[in-house]
Queue: 2 jobs
Job 1
Amino acid sequence: MSSVRISARDMLYEEPGPKAKRRIRIVTGISLAALAALAAAVIHRFYITGQLDPRYWSFFARGTTWTFLGKGLLGTMEAALMAGVLAFAAGFFLMLGRISSIRLLRGLCIALIEFTRGVPTLLFIYFFFLVIPQFGIQMDAFWKISIPVAISACGVVAEVLRSGVNAVPKGQTEAALSLGMRGRSVFLKVVFPQAIRFVIPALIAELVIVVKDTTFAYVVNFPDLMQNAKVLISNYDALLSVYLVVAVIYIVINYLLNRLSDRIAAKQKKPAERRA
Amino acid sequence: MNETREPIISLRHVDKHFGALHVLKAINLDVYKGEVVVVIGPSGSGKSTLCRTINRLETIDSGEILFEGKPLPLEGKELAALRSHIGMVFQSFNLFAHMSILDNVTLGPVDVLHTPKKEAREEARRLLDRVGVLSQESKVPAQLSGGQQQRAAIARSLAMHPKVMLFDEPTSALDPEMIGEVLDVMTTLAADGMTMVVVTHEMNFARRVASRVIFMDSGSIVEEAAPDAFFTNPRTERARSFLQSIHGH
């Protein structure tokens, strides 16, 4: 390895020898050939089924198509952001209850966390879409998608936050207590700020799931990216091309989120590397 | 010692168990104002636990601990107030990892004593200067050497103007070349009249700085003496063999 950085791979495996290196080259070659063959087969299938026909693709040259998809993307981001914020707030309080010394509260929070983690997102959405209106409660489509997605994520957020809190060394709490700080201050000023740093990558991973869950917006007729894609599909009778483009957009968003998470994680390791 | 004065810390017949392990056995100890009491003994002898019971980071099973003549509060605001008068320096420094060195020192005064931020900063800089790490004030703890971190931790404790300082093996996690710089700071503190309880393996420090040496073994105080008497002429066989085993190194 020429690079100085130690990756997880370096820690798990030793440096490959000459034989292993040859084997790696062979396997890499075979894999590349297989991928190329697969791609060729897909394009060939597209060709013979007429999916490459200009009428399936030409509307992507129009600005209005992109404006429409852009509006959908904005809807997706708004719903995902709101769901993320709600999930974080609810997760924070569930976590506080979960680590509380009051047994009843702790039990209640464990039950809520397991409930939200165990029930599929779609069921929560149906609940808000079909059940709640029966009680005469009117809600925007925006809330009918962002609240259930948030509910579905908040239990995981609570557990992620709790694992972060548990990862903060006990000495940090002891040092704060020995200064005369009270429990609430110790938690809010010393423990939680460190806990959140530990779990930012896991929280962003959960945000990716939230973004993907917002695709259920079509159920409640909220104009997110997926819903607008469906409109395009029926307008142009172009299923595959639209789905492909939309999939690429989702991949880009989530890839960017994951990169963000990597960068934050790398930034946290830095101080230790800079040690005098 | 001046018998007419009240001790600032007083442990009376203190007992503590960790499960089946009897870590503190009928401990009696008085610490007077301005004294430096150095606690030594083999690992597992209960000396760290003893130190941590004084600000109630460890609870006790029976007996009594008095601070300025009053029993330690059991919990809440009163316990927090008591702890604010007792500085503590830990083996693993325990600086707040997410804060700059300066913020580490100002947090206590701002949060507990409600000192205005500006005033707290000025005082923190003065203290950091005193322990020789002022140039590191804007770094986070992980960027400092162990010795620098421990000196900053001492400054953090001093910022609360404690009446007593507890040192729980303050140099045990340090590389040999950094031990001296921390002991120097502690020696200066002692010379300035700070009341200190120091758990340590640094025999030279004990010899030079201690007003009294407490030797502990298996949860009991086995010997209590002036440093010269203890190191030149230990009374008990256990203290003698402990000192011999150390000199063997």
Job 2
Amino acid sequence: MNAFANIRTIMKRELSGYFTSPIAYVFLVIFLLLTGFFTFTIGNFFERGEASLVSFFTWHPWLYLFLVPAVGMRLWSEERRLGTMELLLTMPITSWQAIVGKFLASWLFLALALALTFPVVITVNYFGDPDNGVIFAGYVGSLMLAGSYLAVTCMTSALTRNQVISFILSVMICLFLILAGYTPVTDLLTRFVSPVVVDVVAAFSVMTHFEGFQRGVLDTRDVVFFASVIGFMLFTTGVIIRNQRAG
Amino acid sequence: MISVEHLVKAFGPKLAVNDVSFSVERGEVLGFLGPNGAGKSTTMRMITGYYPPTSGRIMVGGHDMVEDPIAAKRLIGYLPENAPGYADMTVNGFLNFCAELRGLQGDARKRAVHRAVELCFLDSVLYQSIDTLSKGYKHRTCLAQSLIHDPDVLILDEPTDGLDPNQKHEVRGLIKRLGENKVVIFSTHILEEVEAACTRVIIIDRGRIVASGTPAELKARSPEGKLDEVFRAITLPDTVKVKAEARA
């Protein structure tokens, strides 16, 4: 019970931190503009002539690649820079409560950004008769994808007090998570190594697991994949934070 | 109330704190004195549970800081060095956040925040964000945070650093008052502060305790009865002789 109260307190502080600074508004506006631009202009939403949000979800792994690290890069590096980490970790809470609280706050913020894309759902329903189950699955997948990137950023922000370094490291790791299963890359790989190896590498990619959601399939394996990326990265964050203090 | 036994902290090959032992009881104000980099902050960070010790034992109110950190941390109020605070929060928001983490809810939280604000004279800046505060107010905000749950143990790392003479005087008075029924450990390198507020002094140099006693006892070691002479004599790097005396 106590653990939940602590997590909630930290979450509340972190979330209000987004809104007391311009970060939240800048992010929301840019996110919505970019999703709109990619969906309608680059994704040819209207010319496709089909009632689906494929042109909307396809871009998410690439959009999140830059936007999610921007949201999460300050999570721990800011604490270290300000010295508030010392304050936070000498409070009667465990470090995992702080880690989970911070992560959930940023994830909730990303969920809000994603929820604000609702006009695209209205649009597609207005013009055609889409399968809203598929759209729902797409949203779930997109949220899991954002959570995975965010957990990676959480880890990189614990590594350094410099937000820029934290941002770049996390973009690199997320890029790897994309490219391992990105079709042009896997096609290239098949020329050099056996298909089994390609499959193993691709299994580590968020692309492979995000595809299912886009097709409207809520596969447990995909959910487990994203959940374990999140779990593993948050666990690593905990180890990093502990080791820094152990000297 | 607090006992520290054979505390050691190593950062790589460097020993920041080397075999420090002492204990403090309720009603005592213990001053940590020492040159910069002597290991004062590191010792305090271990007592408050921020740094795990390399070896040694820390007991706070009967709770082992390593085995049962949550119970031990509950008893402590801590003002870290440089008085950190969340830049984007208001003083009121920050204090409420800290009170919540201390398990205070509803009316109890309101009362606790109100009391801390009064103790540290923060009324005029209550709704100002922390990054706009002057150094003195920022310091007092962090001090208020350490007092918010009326802790039995107060650990203050350079509580008067960056304050003007009036504020210094206030904080010293506050430490003295609080020390009457709590344990207070504070670090400083201002010698008159020690005389003004402490019941006992520990001088640390290069990770070791080189002297300990009441301010009067330490002063008696110098022919002129001045604390700064004693301090300079014990903490000079080449005064092995004096160190040996201190141990004897």
